[in-house]
Each structure stands twice: as C-alpha cells, then as structure tokens.
Amino acid sequence: MGGPRESDTLAAAKRRTSADRAGADVFGRLATELHDAEGVENTVEAVVQFALSALQCSYAGIALIGSTRRPEVVALTHPQVASFYQLQIDAGEGPVITAIQEGSVVVVTDVAGDTRWSSAWRTRLRDAGIRSVVHVPLLAGGRVAAVLSLFSQLPDAFDADDLAVAHILAEHASVAIATARQEAALLQAIDARKLIGQAMGIVMERYDLDADRAFEVLKRYSQQSNRKLRDVAQELIDTRRLPG
User: Fold this and answer.
1) CB under 8 Å to 222, separation ≥6 — which residues?
2) pLDDT bucket at 14, cuts 50 / 70 / 90
3) pLDDT tens, 29-66?
C-alpha cells in the first residue's frame, strides 16, 4: 500500500484530470455557442460574456481591426470599457495599441506602477478602479483581426493558467470571427448581385437592351459618378430612373 505522499499525489492527479475534463466541456460549449452565433456582433458578444465568467475578470471587451487598421469597439461588458479603448485609440498609444502593432499579448500586472505608456491611460484606469489588464490579439490569416481585453480590479489578477485560458479563448474567437466576417461578406455579395440583376432588368425593359449592354450602362454610370455599382443599382430601383 502507498503512503500518505502517494495518496496525495493520486488525489492531486485526479483533481487535475477532473479540471481538465471540466475545461474541455466548457470550451466545447463555447465552440458550440460561437458556431450558433449569427453575425459578427453576436459572435463577439458571446466571447466577452464567456471571458467574464471563465476568467473571473471585472470587465471584458473586444475591438475589431478593420481595413483602416483603426480599432473599433464592438463588444463590452460595461459601458466604461469603451472609454478605456477610446482614450488609447485617440492617443495612438497604450497597451491595446501595442498588442495590435506587435501582434503579441500585453500584460499589465499593476496599472498604478506601469510606466511604459503615457500617464493618461494609467490615470483613467486607476480612477475607474482597474489594477490589472490583459490584451490578447486575435489573429486571422497571420494578421491581428481583433483584440480581446480583460480588466480586473485586483493587482496581478491574471496568472499563467488565466493567460492559457485567454489564449485558447482567443483561438476559438479568431476562427469564429473570421467565419462570421466571411459569411457577412458573402451575404453582402449575394444581396448586391440581386440588386444589380433587378436594376439590369429595369434598364433592359425601358431601353430595349440585352443583358450585356444593360450591365455596361450601369457600370458606366458607376464609373462616372465614382459610386459603387451596388449603390447605383439601388438608386435605380428606388427612383426607377438612372442617376444624374
């Protein structure tokens, strides 16, 4: 029979196994929720709510990075999180900007004593009672597509296990957000084709043109007015006449 130390080791191993299974179940549910979420907004909302419960942070938020590379706040668990982001976006510096530029996790163990950036962000978070922060970039296609931010009212609140969970959450979220964006772009493309098809039908009927010439007419108006073909088609459908 084993001694007390062996029994303690076995008990610890059983606890770890139980925790691992629980973690797998939790992330399994997260994957299902993200898969079922419709659109980018619902997807990022599911991510921040999961982060709030799984990591026991005070607040969480997500900023998406668009084609201009300027962050856009799209999900938050408390209204004042928006001001944490906006202060840094306007200044062009801060831990979230660093996470975007370097594509790496930024950890602030104690806001009060961190001097890596200007004092404005530090004062703002300290006044709001925030002591520690983690910004995790969400990568898609090798680029930063978004940043998951975690805020705590306790100093040094995020340990190695928390960071590991945040990384896993970011990986799940990256795939879900990329998929949601692709689906949104596809739906927009389908909608645009429908609009252009309707507009072509109007031009064909009114001016007795075939499909190719009707499309050339729309394209010419689009180029002359420097507007998207979709917008020209929508105006034609709404007004029943060509723009200009």
Assistant:
1) 228, 229, 231, 232
2) very low
3) 665 666 556 666 777 788 888 888 888 899 999 988 87
Burial class, 80, CB count within 10 angstroms (exposed 0-12 / middle 13-18 / buried 19+):
middle
Its CATH class, for the domain covering 4-179, is alpha beta
- In this prediction, residue 19 has a pLDDT band, given cuts at 50, 70 and 90, of very low
Task: List beta partners, residue 76.
Answer: 61
> What's the pTM?
0.64
Predicted confidence at residue 153, as pLDDT, reads: 95
Whole-number Å distance between alpha carbons of 149 and 136 = 6
Same CATH topology for 4-179 and 186-239: the answer is no
| Pairwise CA distance, residues 36 & 130, whole Å | 33
Phi and psi, residue 59, nearest 5°: -140, 160
Cβ neighbours of residue 198 under 8 Å, at least 6 residues apart? 233, 237
Q: If we measure between CA atoms, which residue out of 180, 184, 218, 182 comes closest to residue 199?
A: 218
**Architecture per CATH, 186-239:** Orthogonal Bundle (1.10)
Q: What's at 223, amino acid-wise?
A: Q
- Nearest Cα residue to 96 out of 61, 67, 127: 61
pLDDT of residue 195: 80
User: Which CA distances in Å does 241 have to 104, 209, 211, 227, 233?
Assistant: 52, 15, 17, 16, 10
Closest C-alpha to 66, from 39, 40, 35, 98: 40
